Amino acid sequence: VIACEPNRELVEIVKQSLLLCGLTEITTIENRAAHSASNNVAKFYVPDGRPMNAALVPSNSKFGGGATLEVETVRLDEVLPKTVDFIKIDTEGAEADVWNGLGRTLEANPG
Fold first, then answer.
1. Which residues of the chain have pLDDT under 50?
2. pTM value?
3. Which runs of E-coded beta strand occur in 1-111?
């Protein structure tokens, strides 16, 4: 399992959950936002009290009632193994950017 989570606070919760479930040995957590390119910086908005609704936003966006962070991006083609059985994407609106970073993976795994 490879999980991408740009929100550092949620990474800690994911780590605790994996430990409780006995899944730490088979899981890698990328503390970066899945995207079409790696090593870029993206603006990430985390609404107060609703961290599960966090999302990458345009760089000129302004919000009240939450935190805006800069997060590093990662192209999934660079972190996924050659053979992939299953991909789940939940990126609150950035799905197209994630798909654009999966060309090699999708080509190698047409099923």
1. none
2. 0.86
3. 2-4, 28-30, 33-35, 41-47, 55-57, 66-75
